[in-house]
Amino acid sequence: MAVSSATVSRMCVTVLFVFSAMWGLALSISRYSIPEEMQEGSVVANLATDLGLDVRALVTRKAKLDIIHSKKYLDINKETGELFILEKIDREYICSSKTTSCFLKMDVIFENPIRIFNIELEIMDINDNAPVFRRETMHLDISESTAPGERFSLTNAVDADVGANSIKTYYLSTSKSFTIDIQTGSDGSKYVDLVLNRNLDREEQALHNLILTAVDGGVPARSGTASIIVRVLDINDNAPLFNHKQLYKVPIPENAPNGATIVIVSATDLDEGLNGEIVYSLPAKEDAKHTEMFSIDPRSGVITSKGTIDYEENAAFEIRVQAKDRGLPPRSTQCKVLVEVIDVNDNAPEIVVTSVMATVKEDSFVGTVIASINALDKDGGKNGHVVCTLVGDVPFKLISTYNNYYSVAVDRQLDRESVSQYNVTISAKDEGTPPLSSTTVIKITVSDVNDNPPRFSEPIINVFVKENIPAGALIVRLTASDHDVNDNAQIAYSMLETSNTLPTMININSLTGEIYSMHSFNYEGVKKIQFQVQATDSGVPPLSSNVTVNVFILDENDNSPVILPPYSDPGSVHSENIPYSAERLQRQDCLFDSFYGIICNTTVSRSG
Ligand SMILES: *[C@@H]1O[C@H](CO)[C@@H](O)[C@H](O)[C@H]1NC(C)=O
Ligand SMILES: *[C@@H]1O[C@H](CO)[C@@H](O)[C@H](O)[C@H]1NC(C)=O
């Protein structure tokens, strides 16, 4: 322990006082030199010998050791005359650690006569003190951005010993980043600076624990340590980094509900605090439409859909995602999210009739194209693959021409007179699961062709007229029918002339088929008129058919009966076979006899 300078000066004053009071009595000054901390009882010197006195005089003259200090470190052995250590002397207790020489002064006083001997005992330093740091732990905050070469002064250690036993040097524990620089002050004390010798990286090592050791120059040397804790202060030297990938590929089904989670992106930032706090965003770029469809949670990085996603509108999206830290200035990174929209069969096929012939002639050839259709489906893949079919049994067929283009063609002979109109249902069905389908109806009208001739109901028409009918009387009305329509069924009647006399007897109205007499008939002259009437339609080419008309003239009682035996002998019984057709004539109550002419059954017996 060192003594304060105030105590030292007071001690000096005391010495001067003694000297002045005893002036002339002090005869000599003896000097001795001993190391501090000598064992008690150790002999420093033999005073009797050194002062040239008889040993017995020490007793007789009451020799007394007066140490000018509160403690009695030494004493005199009055039998041997030796000065010996009574109590261990600590140099640092007596003198300041800064003082290089340290003396303990004392007087040996004799009586009879009084004599005073001054003794100066130099206490030599031994290395009994280790260096000590006033602060056992030093904290330093150093920014990552600090340039190498920067110095940080450290609290130095102190050693109570002096000279060679005081601090000689410092050592720093092994460190890649730090060294120390030792400087010596004007008073010889050592100062130590911590020197940064390379760039710090907080992300690599945020805390550096160093041990500073101070060593003195004693033999053996003593040392003291302090720990230096360097905390590296963050700077925003790291940009956020997207984990794992720069590109996210995400498939999502179309029609995903509004707000559906698409993907969660995550980035990390090696920095700390605001420098490492990440904010996600979708920076609007030139393709703002894609950004409008999605939103991102700035904290969690969850990307959700906004509105519904329609595959038919966009089959894929490319979203740019930004991760930005909150440092000053901030740093950012971007990544891409590729959203692949998976088609759902949400669109039914659509049939577009590109052309259609509203009417088809009934004599159209098999293979005649009557309509063209195109089947469309907005979906992709199988969902958009369409197959068309005709529904029901119709005389048409579908011919696939190209992709989803089809022709509707005549498949069988048509007959307007059987079916004049078709509602052709076309069904289009896609191959999605479940499939979607739609139908469309095209109306086909079969147009008439003159393929039916006019027809009479009977091949032969028999008419009975009374003789003497007036000229211009209606004899019969002929009617033919035609299955065709319009002109093809417009019938004109005409008489096929077989003789020149016929037109003078009867006349035909070509429009109505009515036959009139030109004059009255005379049964006795003509019994039967036979001719053919032709019915012709107005088709192109026209078709016709014939009918045979028999006009029988019925007798009126305008002559006295006369039996004329034209071909038989008188008195013989004439008989004639009745033709088969007589049955019919009979039903009309009359029959035709080539000999008698018309015989009605009221007057004629069939057996003859
Ligand atoms: C065709 O459909 C219409 C209604 O659209 C109907 O009036 C008509 O009778 C149908 N024709 C046939 C031949 O089925
Ligand atoms: C109708 O009679 C005329 C004259 O005899 C003949 O040329 C024509 O072929 C006949 N038509 C039919 C359909 O029998």
Automatic annotation (TrEMBL):
<feature type="domain" description="Cadherin">
    <location>
        <begin position="457"/>
        <end position="563"/>
    </location>
</feature>
<dbReference type="InterPro" id="IPR015919">
    <property type="entry name" value="Cadherin-like_sf"/>
</dbReference>
<dbReference type="GO" id="GO:0005509">
    <property type="term" value="F:calcium ion binding"/>
</dbReference>
<keyword id="KW-0130">Cell adhesion</keyword>
<dbReference type="Pfam" id="PF00028">
    <property type="entry name" value="Cadherin"/>
</dbReference>
<dbReference type="GO" id="GO:0007156">
    <property type="term" value="P:homophilic cell adhesion via plasma membrane adhesion molecules"/>
</dbReference>
<dbReference type="GO" id="GO:0009653">
    <property type="term" value="P:anatomical structure morphogenesis"/>
</dbReference>
<dbReference type="InterPro" id="IPR002126">
    <property type="entry name" value="Cadherin-like_dom"/>
</dbReference>
<dbReference type="GO" id="GO:0005886">
    <property type="term" value="C:plasma membrane"/>
</dbReference>
<protein>
    <recommendedName>
        <fullName>Cadherin domain-containing protein</fullName>
    </recommendedName>
</protein>
<keyword id="KW-0732">Signal</keyword>
<keyword id="KW-0812">Transmembrane</keyword>
<keyword id="KW-0325">Glycoprotein</keyword>
<dbReference type="InterPro" id="IPR020894">
    <property type="entry name" value="Cadherin_CS"/>
</dbReference>
<dbReference type="InterPro" id="IPR013164">
    <property type="entry name" value="Cadherin_N"/>
</dbReference>
<feature type="domain" description="Cadherin">
    <location>
        <begin position="26"/>
        <end position="133"/>
    </location>
</feature>
<feature type="domain" description="Cadherin">
    <location>
        <begin position="134"/>
        <end position="242"/>
    </location>
</feature>
<comment type="function">
    <text>Potential calcium-dependent cell-adhesion protein. May be involved in the establishment and maintenance of specific neuronal connections in the brain.</text>
</comment>
<dbReference type="InterPro" id="IPR050174">
    <property type="entry name" value="Protocadherin/Cadherin-CA"/>
</dbReference>
<feature type="domain" description="Cadherin">
    <location>
        <begin position="352"/>
        <end position="456"/>
    </location>
</feature>
<keyword id="KW-0472">Membrane</keyword>
<keyword id="KW-0677">Repeat</keyword>
<keyword id="KW-1133">Transmembrane helix</keyword>
<dbReference type="Pfam" id="PF08266">
    <property type="entry name" value="Cadherin_2"/>
</dbReference>
<feature type="domain" description="Cadherin">
    <location>
        <begin position="244"/>
        <end position="351"/>
    </location>
</feature>
<keyword id="KW-0106">Calcium</keyword>
